[in-house]
Amino acid sequence: MKKITKKTTKKKDPSSITLRWSDHFVGLPNAFLRSALFSTGRGRGDINEGRGGIVSAEEGNRVTIKATSDISVTASMGGGRLNQYDKLVFSSLIHLCWLHDIDKDGCKATKFQFRISDGLKILGIEPSTATARVYLASLERLSQTTIIIDHLVGRYKAHFSGSLLSYSSIHRGRAAGSVINININESLQPLFQAGMWSALDWQIMQSLGRNYLAHWIYSFFSSHNAGRGSTMRKVCPALKCDIYDLQFYSLYKLQSLCGTDIKERWKFKQKLNEAIAKIKAACDAANVDMEYEFRRGKSGDEQLRLGFTPRPRGKIVFSPPVPVTASTITLEEDEERHKAAEDLRRKWDEAFGDREEDEDEEERDDTYDYYDD
Question: What is the DSSP letter of 83?
Answer without folding.
Answer: B
